[in-house]
Amino acid sequence: MQEIMQYIPGNGIFHRVHPLTKLLFTVIIVILAVLTSDLLLLAFLLVAVFLAAWAGGLGRGLTEQIPLLLVLGVMLVLFTVLTMHGGEVLFTLIPAGIPLIGGGLPVTTGALLFGTILSLRFAVMLFAFQLLVVSTKPGELVTTLRQLKMPIDYTLMFLIALRFIPTLQREGIRISEAQLARGYAPGDGMMGKVRGLKPVILPLILNALGKADTLGLTIDMRGYRRGRADTGTLSFGALDGVVILAALALAAIVAATNIILV
Amino acid sequence: MITIDHFSYTYRNREHPVLRDISLSIPKGSMMIVTGPSGAGKTTLCRAMAGILSHVYTGTATGSIAIAGRDIMEYKGIEELSHDVSMVFDDADAQLIFTTVGEEVMTSLENRGLSKKEAEAELVRILDLLQISHLADRAPYTLSGGQKQKAALAATLALGTNVLILDEATSELDEEARNLVFSILRSLADGGRTIVLVEHMIDEAAKYADSCVLVKDGTIAASKTPEEVSRIIQKSLPPITKRPGKEQGDLLIEATGLVHCYGDFCAVDGVDITLRKGEIIAIVGENGSGKTTLVKHFNGLLKPTAGTLRIAGSTCNGHSISVLSRHTGLVFQNPDTMLFEDTVRKEIAFGLKNIGRDQSCIADVLNEVGLAGKEDTNPRHLSRGERQRLALACVVAMGQEVFVLDEPTTGLDLAESLQIMEILMRLSDEGHGIVMITHNPNLATTFADRVMKMSNGKIVCSQEA
Question: Which residues cross the membrane (chain A) (predicted)?
Answer without folding.
Answer: 23-54, 66-84, 90-113, 234-261
